[in-house]
Specification:
The chain is 42% helix and 11% strand. It has eight helices and four strands, in the order H-E-H-E-H-H-H-H-E-E-H-H. Strands 1-2-3-4 form a four-stranded mixed sheet, covered by helices on one side. The mean pLDDT is 88.
């Protein structure tokens, strides 16, 4: 259901959210009751790199990043019952990702928009799915639990496994709000660009108007 957000229908939004985010919620809710009775269990959710931001996939990326938030909360809700919950962002060549349309787009230079390295082939960018499976199994072992791996998110692609950091505050501005009240627009204009936004890069800057 890929479509630019201004062309996306409510139905196209709903069907993707209900497939991915509702699907994970429904499975977790059903499994959690049984896992509580047995005093333990492992849950591995499937997110996606698209959740980090992918053009034309507002519905899919929202659902997949929602799964990350769901994973973190479920880990905290169920950890006291011995239940471990983690998520992966897998990348692999499947019937969907290796479709004729994807191969055609790749041959036209579509790989650069997906973060592929220069000269990287589609087969190199999307290794076989069996490279993902072993790590999923590992996340369901006592060794993973003993290593305190809970509520975490991993990238798994080919021979590469990477742990994503937890979101954290990287820059802060403050004022004495109890003494001086809320921020004023002038204060924000003066401080945010220099202190919070310095060094930021716009991931999608506007195109130049050729008519000017």
């Amino acid at each position: 259901r890929d479509r630019m957000v201004f062309n996306m229908s409510a139905e196209e939004w709903d069907v993707v959210i209900k497939t991915h985010l509702y699907g994970h919620f429904n499975c977790i809710r059903a499994a959690a009751s049984e896992m509580r009775r047995q005093h333990g269990g492992f849950i591995v959710n499937t997110s996606s790199e698209s959740g980090l931001g992918q053009m034309g996939q507002a519905n899919y990326s929202s659902a997949k990043e929602g799964i990350v938030g769901l994973t973190r909360t479920v880990a905290r809700d169920l950890g006291r019952y011995g239940i471990i919950c983690n998520a992966i962002r897998p990348r692999a060549g499947t019937r969907m990702t290796m479709s004729e349309s994807v191969q055609a787009a790749w041959s036209k230079g579509g790989g650069s928009g997906l973060g592929a390295a220069p000269g990287e082939t589609l087969e190199e960018y999307l290794p076989p799915p069996e490279y993902v499976s072993p790590f999923v199994v590992f996340l369901c072992t006592e060794e993973a639990a003993k290593a305190n791996i809970n509520g975490r998110v991993f990238l798994v692609v080919g021979g590469k496994i990477a742990l994503y950091n937890e979101p954290e505050l990287v820059k802060t501005i403050t004022k004495d709000w109890q003494k001086n009240g809320p921020w004023t627009l002038d204060e924000l204009i003066a401080r945010v660009p220099k202190e919070l936004a310095q060094g930021l890069v716009n991931p999608s800057p506007p195109k130049e108007d050729k008519k000017k």
